[in-house]
Amino acid sequence: MYEITFKIEGGDDAVIFASHGENILELARKANVAIDAPCSGNGSCGKCRVRLLGGEVYSAITRHINDYEYFNGWRLACVSKVSGNAKIFVPDIASAYKNRMQVSDLSSPREIEIFDSLQKEMKAAGLDFGNGYSTFIVEIAPPTLDDTMPDNERLTRTVAARMGKSDVHIRYSLLKKLPNLLRDNNYRLRCLLYGEGESVRILDLFPAEGRTPICGLAIDVGTTTVSALLADLETGKILAKGSTGNGQIRYGADVINRIIEQQKDGGVERLRYAVVHESLLPVIHKMCDDAGVAPERIGCVTLAGNTTMNHLLLGVNANYLRMEPYVPAFFEIAPIFTREVGIDIAPGAKMFVAPNIGSYVGGDITAGTLASMIWNSPELSLLVDLGTNGEIVFGNSEFLMACACSAGPAFEGGDIRCGMRATDGAIEACSIDRETMEPYLTVIGGGKPVGLCGSGIIDVIAELFATGIIDGRGKFARQGERVVYDEYGTGRYILSFAGRTATGREIYINETDIDNFIRTKGAIFSAIMTLLGPLGFAPEDIDRVLVAGGIGSGINVRNAIRIGMFPSLPESKYRYIGNTSLAGAYAMLISDKAARRLSELARGITYVELSTQPGYMDSFIAACFLPHTDASLFPDTDAREEA
Amino acid sequence: MYEITFKIEGGDDAVIFASHGENILELARKANVAIDAPCSGNGSCGKCRVRLLGGEVYSAITRHINDYEYFNGWRLACVSKVSGNAKIFVPDIASAYKNRMQVSDLSSPREIEIFDSLQKEMKAAGLDFGNGYSTFIVEIAPPTLDDTMPDNERLTRTVAARMGKSDVHIRYSLLKKLPNLLRDNNYRLRCLLYGEGESVRILDLFPAEGRTPICGLAIDVGTTTVSALLADLETGKILAKGSTGNGQIRYGADVINRIIEQQKDGGVERLRYAVVHESLLPVIHKMCDDAGVAPERIGCVTLAGNTTMNHLLLGVNANYLRMEPYVPAFFEIAPIFTREVGIDIAPGAKMFVAPNIGSYVGGDITAGTLASMIWNSPELSLLVDLGTNGEIVFGNSEFLMACACSAGPAFEGGDIRCGMRATDGAIEACSIDRETMEPYLTVIGGGKPVGLCGSGIIDVIAELFATGIIDGRGKFARQGERVVYDEYGTGRYILSFAGRTATGREIYINETDIDNFIRTKGAIFSAIMTLLGPLGFAPEDIDRVLVAGGIGSGINVRNAIRIGMFPSLPESKYRYIGNTSLAGAYAMLISDKAARRLSELARGITYVELSTQPGYMDSFIAACFLPHTDASLFPDTDAREEA
């Protein structure tokens, strides 16, 4: 056995004993040391960089570590094995995540405006506030020798009479505090209630004085990001907002890698723990602190996540989602006690999970469809949710169809060497001078650039193509100071030289990045075409395109069309509508009507499984070109001619 | 601070540090050392004997410890205080309990016969077997690319179709094992189900092969004894029987002392813990071992206990039961999850608590009334349950009234110097020669006597009175070898000299015992009269008297009448019907009809609170005489004349 010491940046050392040949990334996971590994250790992403400070490890050669870096001790953990005692430096995962995991969590005025406008539209369509939660101050006649009715009946009968309801229940756990509470407060209590028809449940009891809110949580569990809202259920008011990275990310950036990870021994529990204990609970406690509310005051949770996230969060084996015939354990699930999944808030608090409708179209999309309002209009609408996966819903008030394509994490900075999320330091827009090939960059926050976010990638590729720097296959076609080739012959375009970035490292996009991205945009476009086709629709029949998700409001639709990601339609038909999954989860929380509408909606959406759809593969291959192998699909945007 | 070491007989030492003046009994409770203290430390029962082995304590003088014993270190813990370091011997509470806590738990053929006959009568009256539990082997069509319905719907729809039900649910926790279970067993599973109308809940899932029972528990939680049955819910078959003492007994033999104890800091939790963890769980695990059934297979529990026991077991403050106007926290309570009270059996298992109807008439009596069948006949019946308390139900198919009297623990051996429960070594019957005053004793098991059980006490007092050894006030009126007076002038009658007993200690009954017992029997008789009076009934209107409870089948009804405990009626009108509380709890468990009948019954019984009943006190005082101050009530049994 050898002694491996992980020296964690900004943290305590972790020591673990290991046998010859054990994989360093696996070992780190065993020792609960967080190493960023979006590809889950298959050597492709190059993000699990660690530095050997002493001792020895055996590492395979990888193109992600150059000779200079190797000489300085840098290794990829996933291709390194134990061959003796070793001291290994692990960069702070928090800072590694910081960029890729920051989220547009309603913190900008623009995002808040979009969120509020969606809520207004839902309300206008009749899904108004009203969720059965209320508080009620009740005065009870004290017992006498002639009236010895027990405390629980005395309370429930009084509430029933005052509210005109036939059926009032009190939970067992409240019985424990009822006798003293009644007598200490002269039989005057404040009741937190949940009513449904004739039935009323007493959720909690307090002295009549004081104001104790009943709160609810709306949570969007994304593959990359967890976002949440804490709301007062009695008024609907948002008390706090919060977001963080999904702690599962170190087991893989995409759902497939995580499903593979959960198949390993103890994996189901490991992935459940990561999202619940490392993401949800910290966000919940942070929001409670911000709002000055105790977690015990949260009586209800709504959750919107994709099908895989829903399985993993509930600790349900997701393996059969990725194996033919791609069958989930569940679409819909009755409300569950939050304590059953390790979320310890109010006793008896329940979690409502937005229903999934397909193996890769989950509750985030059904909740998002609700919030998008496309079901409420005869206009033919396309809802495109661009997060770690790309999901597309097409239809109107008459019909709805949905499909998913594995967009990969490109829009959130994954699978791109210098990728990051749309936050401070991200290059969010770019144009390139046709003559000089010099880029003009827009950086969020205005400082030196750190990396490239989703909207920036679209711009860069559109501009590289428009200027003829790359060809339709994404290969470099022009030479210049900013076009450089590495030892393997892979070309890259330098967006910012090392001396001019915030990190001191060059920011570039290379042919592998471009290739990855072309496949991403090809997947989205071909998915759209595959949804339209069977019903005989062509892109020009689409009345509007609603773009949602992690890509952010910075997206340049014109450029997205120029690279063949979105159909060639007037820009006025496009609208960015933010995090619809969270907007839908919040609507579910505060409006019973919205929750009911969501259930109906989910049952009415036809799921199309692309991987088994004849013709999809051909359509995808045809779309893996800039803008498309069939140029007639992009008549207005022959970028090559413009160039 | 002084160091107090408790040297526990047959156990490990316990050491605790204490201040000058701390009470030794309280200190023992703090150190979790079990000392028998039925009177909960008020100095009256004399059972908390400990022996000072070294060091010092300060003890008040008590008539329970004579000079010889004092010289040998014996003290009452409850009247002893810390005055220095001390080593204190504590007799094994298990053996101390052994006699008082053994129970007639359906182990004798006679008890089994009585139990079976009650069940047959209930069945004959239409309360037949049928409880919604069943098992079902289901074969499910495997998914294909054209049929990708999720696992949970695939299962619930198949079950719904096969059973012709509209509404089949599966619990969240089962989802976790469903995906693998389905595939590992070729989509053929054994489902444990609970059905109610159109709705079916899937409780658990197993491979189709093998036989996994669904079990239920019926529990009678008495003040002194906990008895239980483990049954197969699908067939009703009893798989195991068990009983043990109620672990709360060291906090007091009667309910009042326990309510006082639970008012102390942490007392509610201490009393809940004692009955759940020291009594219920050991009995449950013992029965599971006996039957070869895992606790996780127990999906349902029915519980019958008196009002105080129900409060204390559920951890609900019982204090207001003993304070005017005597108001409980609850009579009825919706089924609760067993895990909420610390009984960890099947996930989602629920406990059904037989409803209370008064502060001192609880679920044991409503369940017992169900089992007694007095509600099913026009005959005017009296049900007398003689346990730690005495409860009386009077009525027929037209009306039912109930009351309770604090019989004290005399019938179970408490409050009587040489008292014990009806088990091996107990004097269960006695006659006394009118001339020689020599007793003829019947000892359970046939060996040397250990003590005196409830039926034996009745016999001894009836015979002492019949022979004129005691007078109507219970004072000694004749002298002889067996009548002895102590230093305080208290007379006693020696039933067995020290040399002839199993313990080597004299077995006797003294004037204090007799006085206690006269008050017990007076309470019962006056309670009966108080129930009859308001409706204008006299004892001779009673068609039958059913005697239930811990007193056991050994009771001599003729003697009970001779001392004025029971009304003067022909012996043929009396019948002993065993533990009706457990019989009723078992009926609730296996028959939904019985459970519904019990709810209706409970609502129909009129509770009479004796303590607030005008005239009860006078009636009680009049009955505290042998046989009664009004001799005309016992015309056939003027024992004095016979003597």
Describe the structure.
Chain A has 643 residues and is α/β, with parallel strands linked by helices. Chain A has 4 domains: 2-91, Ubiquitin-like (UB roll) (Roll), CATH 3.10.20; 98-124 and 216-406 and 579-612, 2-Layer Sandwich (Nucleotidyltransferase, domain 5), CATH 3.30.420; 133-207, Roll (Ubiquitin-like (UB roll)); 413-517, no CATH class. The first copy, chain A, is 29% helix and 25% strand. Chain A has 18 helices and 27 strands. In chain A, the strands form 6 sheets. The first copy, chain A, has a 6-stranded mixed sheet with strand order 12-11-10-13-15-14, sandwiched between helices. In chain A, β16 (381-386) and β17 (390-395) form a beta hairpin. Chain A is globular and about 100 Å long. The N and C termini of chain A lie far apart (62 Å). Mean pLDDT of chain A is 90; it is low at 94-104 and 638-643. Chain A binds chain B through residues 143-145, 147-153, 169, 172-173, 175-176, 178-180, 183, 268, 314-317, 319-320, 324-334, 336, 340, 356, 358-359, 609, 612, and chain B through 143-145, 147-153, 169, 172-173, 175-176, 178-180, 183, 268, 314-317, 319-320, 324-334, 336, 340, 356, 358-359, 609, 612.
User: Which structural class best describes the helix and strand composition of chain A?
Assistant: alpha/beta
- Spatial sequence of strands, sheet with the most strands of chain A: 12-11-10-13-15-14
Strand content of chain A: 25-35%
Task: Give the fraction of residues assigned to helices of chain A.
Answer: 25-40%
- Continuous helix count of chain A: 18
CATH topology grouping of the largest domain in chain A? Nucleotidyltransferase, domain 5
Tell me the radius of gyration of chain A: 27 Å
